[in-house]
Amino acid sequence: MVKRFPRGAEHVVALDGIDLAVAAGESVAVVGPSGSGKSTLLHLAGGLDVPDAGTVRVDGRDLAGLAVAERARLRRRDVGFVFQFFHLLPSLTVAENVELPLLLDRSARAARGAVAGALQRVGVAHRAGHLPGELSGGEMQRAAIARALVARPRLVLADEPTGNLDSATGRAVLDLLGEVVREAGTALVMVTHDEAAAARSDRVVRLLDGRLVDGAARVGDAAGVGDAAGVGDAAGVGDAAGVGDAAGADVAAGPAPAAGRG
Ligand SMILES: Nc1ncnc2c1ncn2[C@@H]1O[C@H](COP(=O)(O)OP(=O)(O)O)[C@@H](O)[C@H]1O
Ligand SMILES: [Mg+2]
User: Fold this and answer.
1) What is the pLDDT of residue 216?
2) Which region among 47-51, 64-68, 220-224 has the lowest average model confidence (pLDDT)?
3) Which residues pair with 3 in a beta bridge?
4) Torsion of the alpha carbons at 258, 185, 17 and 174, rounded to the nearest 10
5) From the CB of 38, is ligand 1 less than 6 Å away?
6) In this predicted structure, which of 79-93, 100-114, 173-187 has the lowest mean pLDDT?
7) Residue 255: CB within 6 Å of ligand 1?
């Protein structure tokens, strides 16, 4: 994938030929210096922005080939986002924030049940009726994790989810995020500066100046590159539900090279 942003008469190349595949149930940490393209990569993977060249496939579907409404539905159902600054809507309660992704797809009754379960799971059920401004940072991020997971997405994209939390709270939030995606068999792509958190991921990819300099091994590629059944084994994913699936998310550009896993 290539992504450029205009800057004056010139442009910045935010992503300069990134080729990355993430298998179902796999957790991938994205590391690299500020400005290396990490957030841009997540935005493209989740369909929040589009590449200038290359293809983004989620669950085998090319995002560029989807109508606007279909892409919106895919983002709502199949992708969950967790951001550094939580991005909860301040005038809605915690429960209403978590319910939002469900409202267009389910009956209000089914949505309420899922919301209660999600809030329970992340430990903020007692905060359901509060406004985000009444919560601590850790509680806000827990609520945001509940919102990201409530629709049972195939892929969760987290951009420095602990960047605004103290280290003890951040550790607890990362533990929670790791547990809930593992339970659900959800693929996780997480930008982090926390080397310990990165080390606990199945794989670490390193960006520098918009290029992948490490960890680009293609696994579980939907186009048939790589052996999906072996991916879970190689990555140490023990959850059978997440193994041998088509790729949960496949961010790919250009001709597929030979499988890089080894
Ligand atoms: N919306 C935008 N408009 C202009 N430039 C942008 C935009 N988003 C990102 N960039 C530029 O692209 C590069 C990569 O940014 P980003 O993906 O945010 O990096 P990171 O998340 O690794 O810090 C930077 O040079 C940044 O200034
Ligand atoms: Mg960023």
Assistant:
1) 65
2) 220-224
3) 15
4) -130
5) yes
6) 100-114
7) no
Select from 109, 92, 111, 110 the least CA-distant residue to 101. 111
Position 18 scores a pLDDT of: 94
Q: Whose CA is nearest to atom 24 of ligand 1?
A: 35
CB 246 less than 6 A from any atom of ligand 1: no
| Burial class of 57 by CB neighbour count within 10 A (0 to 12, 13 to 18, 19+) | buried
- Answer yes or no: are the C-beta atoms of 86 and 140 closer than 8 Å: yes
Q: Report the distance separating Cα 216 and Cα 206, nearest Å.
A: 8
Q: Which atom of ligand 1 lies closest to the CA of 159?
A: 21
Tokens 């004056």 belong to residue: 8
Which of 260, 182, 191, 177 is CA-nearest to residue 220?
260
Q: Which residue has the higher pLDDT, 76 or 138?
A: 138
Q: Helix, strand, coil shares of the chain as percentages rounded to 5?
A: 40, 20, 40
Give pLDDT tens digits for 187-200: 999 999 888 889 88
CB 11 less than 6 A from any atom of ligand 1: no
CB 173 within 8 A of CB 145: yes
Is the distance from the beta carbon of residue 163 to the nearest atom of ligand 1 less than 6 Å? no
Which atom of ligand 1 is found nearest the CA of 49?
1
